[in-house]
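Reopening this ticket.

The earlier resolution said the output was attached, but the attachment link was broken on my side. Pasting everything inline this time so it's all in one place.
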Amino acid sequence: MVKRILKLFNKDFGNVHHAAILLGVAMFTSQVLGLIRDRILASTIGPSQTLDIYYAAFRIPDLLFVTIASLASVTAVAPMLARYFKDGDGEVEKLKARKFLGDCLSFFSLILVISCCIVFFLMPYLAHLIAPGFDSAAQAELVQVSRIMLASPLLLGISNLLGSVTQLFRRFVVYALSPILYNLGIIIGVTFFYPTEGIVGLAYGVIIGAVLHVAIQIPTLVSLKMLPIIHRDFSFTEVLSVIKTSLPRTMTLSLTTIAMFAIVSIASMLGEGSISRLQFAYNLSAVPVAIIGLSYSVAAFPSLAHLFQEGKFDIFGSTVANIFRHIIFWSTPVLVLFVVLRAQIVRVILGGGAFTWDDTKLTAAALALFVLSVVVNGLFILMTRVFYAAGETRKPLIVASSATVFQISLAYIFTKLYIFSEPARLFLERLFRVEGVPDTGMLMLALTFSVGSFISFFFLFHIVARRYLTRDLVRAIRTTAFDILFASLLGGLVAYGALHYFAFAFDLEHLKGVFFQGFLSGVLGIIVMFYTLKLLKNVELEEVSSAIHKKFWKQEVLVANEHETKEI
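Inline output:
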């Protein structure tokens, strides 16, 4: 058993689809743990000021991570590491690569430590920017929790750097396990530390998760003989190259974090529990993005980088289009079913305990608005990786900058209009069946998030299509989009009708009844989608069916089969 596990850890997943499947399974596991985490938080604490403080406390540590730690990202470090192995992977090449890693580790760790120390003392002032709607007592708790969480960007930054090695050598199992262990650490904090330490215990869980995130990387680096070397002859030249390459990407990520910063700031003024409900809804909508969009993008990046460096631009473009089609294929049905089954999903996963029916209704409505951008967010992740593989980082930055400014402006405008415009408020409340529920203004923040995502996607897709895709490839993507959208809408209508039918068959006052109502409705919807795509002779369905048949029945080894006994 130990040998099998070690073999799995050291397995080179060279095939994009195999790697994507592995990452998808692991990411799914990570997301399940994340949902368990949210379930515990929702039932134990519920949408409240305590949970609002906890989620708001992430803003500054997250900003530090994306502005400093992400400079040493895999998209910048991995290509530079690859240069050391152009002529082989012998001891000399590994020694140079390890020294380069050591230089990056020393520099970025030092900058992070200094930044965290400065922020530690400035936190009382920053708390007013994070959550202006909090009272003085809540802001004092926010300061305390944020200060503890300042250790997480340093730990995750180190893990991020080490992860560039595991991804370069296609050790995707280790990369996939990192977020799983991170969520496990948070669950430990919620379960064991919160009952005795209160909200501080939640912060301890975050730190435990970050430690585990780093620790899982180390055995693989040892086996690869790629542990960083800290040496005296520090070379700033190559570190500067990493910064120059990563800076546009880091600024892009920073803009997203700033947008979330603004959303949290506005939500703090909308009523107690608004931040928590928004975060719960966002976390649920992020599940398909992580499982589908992120898995495919991470798996494809090394191959895309190699293809571009080798000048195989035709294969590069066809690979991008192929992954594009498959992300659309998997994400679109999820979007439709999440909108239709939103209340059942939220109630089953989060409902009960301190999480009331009003909380369920509001979170479900926010989920429907967040999930509208599931497909485009998954594709946006892929497109940024396409540009990074090509060594182009400015275009995503320009697009994200424009979208973020628009998104923040729209968030303020929409929120104000919603509060002061009774017709608009009544329309949205009736549409999502939240009449009479307080603090519905938070829905405007979820809407603006999706609007910003669509704007970013369309601008970036225009550039990608013009540079890397032929007309035939774009036409193939459109065909896939129309096929799967038609099938998904038809399946969604069936699922919606089934909900009303099963409402009479099950007792919806109990969790089991809500579960079976949503589950059976979803199954019927998926069946309709499947046969519709089959009638349309959808290419992606045929490709997926062929791949599954080949892996299960015509080969001996399958990651999800043989290695299942063994989640970014």
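Reporter confirms the inline version is readable. Residues 273-536 form one domain. The chain has 24 helices and no strands.
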